């Protein structure tokens, strides 16, 4: 079974590095490099000649050691960082800045502390010009969906880390982006909360089928969630390998943990990352 | 050093020159006797500093300021540190401080003069009072913020309570204390000038107002330049000292935001 | 918990009570003649009586007008320049060296110059208050605004906020805790400076009242304005505190 064929209308064809552009490409990254000026005249090549195509509706994880530029790649797609070289495109158009078609979810939650939970969720909708009553109703519905009914008037400081991240996800889903950009979203959470949020994220993705670009350093998380895992190596940050995760959906963590294929994916990818240590 | 670096270190100098230029143009424009140009005022500086009486007056001011400041530091830092670590001490002193804070200490000058005369003691006492509060406040904040676990590790190593205060709380609170001292230094200068302006006996503040009364306008403005320069020099010197003492502390990040 | 609060309040009142008791006993036991140190009862009695005195109320009003005008201008100008310096590298390059030169100058020394240029009326005193309150507000706005978490800004931009709106919708509210801290410092400084300016040259205001009393050795009248300015400071401070806890209700650790 091909990964991208999870969607009934998607092509079974998935060879993103072949240079052939699939019909339903959502994100295209074309010879992107990123160089950062460090102190003085020195500079550091964070990303070197990245080429990547991500299809509409795919769940793709970017995995790699810290400092491999995986977050930078995500920020380039978000339009927060301009690449030094190359072009990143979304729906065929070059990315020039942030836009509501690409919604970020950060590890640090980045909720507005001066707004309550509902106010945070409504922000993007109001910014898109939605009427207040409409945004209010939709915001409440979204909060119910992420399991936070009854917390509308709480302030972020009154919530636990897991709840904050649920609010952040609802805030981003609220303006209905085509792409979710998730930057180690569950990295700051304890193991139990993390598992629950992973499951909830899969449920949401199942119903909404947004394209998800998910940065993580947990191999298990990447394999569990994704259709495709992009393994990166560092110095300079580059794509080492792209692994298609051919596991049936809907996935159940308890079943997968005993699944030999799941275990093999994890072991294989961990070996790839281990090899990367030679670069140090 | 790069050209940019040189420009950056010299930028306060450019700022000074720019301000003096603005002054020069403004006074030429207004053209009144009571607002001399920057150049005239600068020319008047040597005659003040060259005059033995004036110079002694100014040095006397600085001496009193230093004594008041040193006494305040010796009194305020231990008190602030204790307040930060012992709740009862903080509860005892906080309301008193809240009441005293908005009272201008230099305004006590007439009353203190009534009790203690116009000598050094009154002036030093006023400076001491003026400087103590911000240093107490910052030492209090700094010592309150010290990580409890650092003190636990200290206790586990067998440090006694006074030892922990000296070896853990004091250094950990040092960046905050030094911020307080910097405020205190500027305040000491302000209190000194003001109390001399009010007492009108001697010192830099007295020269300033006497020349105002006698309509020696270039002396007024020259004195302002001298006092201003004192403020800038003391502050810069203290900042150097501060940086060398708390090199380990995270410097304040002042990069412009990147959304423009 | 409640008991703890009561205890800490009692503990806090103790030094104030002790202070007044010491003050009274100095007189009662004859250590200080009433001509030098009037008894606390006389001072507070005079203060209470003065509240029905038109001249006294006029003095308070004069002081408050100068205080609010100077402080208000300092808040507007300080927040504006502070935000601009945090946001624009060009403004930053100009403002930073100017602030480094101007902030440590004892502003009270400029007062004679202000008198000569602006005259002996309100304008010179208001300008002095503004000059003194400006820098703490400007600096804390600047630091608050430059420390705004980048990802807050990114989140707002991704949600479709235009760049020019980011300043008011994200940077200003996010910097609010720091701005209000600066305002609190600026307010105390304003109280102090307005009083001093009135002491040095004025025809009305609380500071003038003190100097007037000192010239005629009316010791009771010397204490009244001092206690009044302390009370004003306390009241204004608690108003600001109340405003702060309302505006920052969502922020952690207020």
Automatic annotation (TrEMBL), chain C:
Family: Belongs to the binding-protein-dependent transport system permease family.
PROSITE patterns, sorted: ABC_TM1
CDD domains assigned to the protein according to its UniProt record, in alphabetical order: TM_PBP2
Record's keyword annotation contains Transmembrane: yes
Keywords on record: Cell membrane, Membrane, Transmembrane, Transmembrane helix, Transport
Domain of life: Bacteria
Subcellular locations according to the entry: Cell membrane
Membrane topology classification: Multi-pass membrane protein
GO BP field: transmembrane transport
GO CC annotations on file: plasma membrane
SUPFAM superfamilies the record matches: MetI-like
InterPro entries (alphabetical): MetI-like (IPR000515), MetI-like_sf (IPR035906)
Keyword match Cell wall biogenesis/degradation: no
Listed transmembrane segments: 9-31, 60-86, 98-120, 126-145, 166-197, 217-240
Pfam families found in the cross-reference section: BPD_transp_1 (PF00528)
PANTHER family: ABC TRANSPORTER PERMEASE PROTEIN MJ0413-RELATED (PTHR30151:SF0), ALKANE SULFONATE ABC TRANSPORTER-RELATED, MEMBRANE SUBUNIT (PTHR30151)
The protein's name: ABC transporter permease
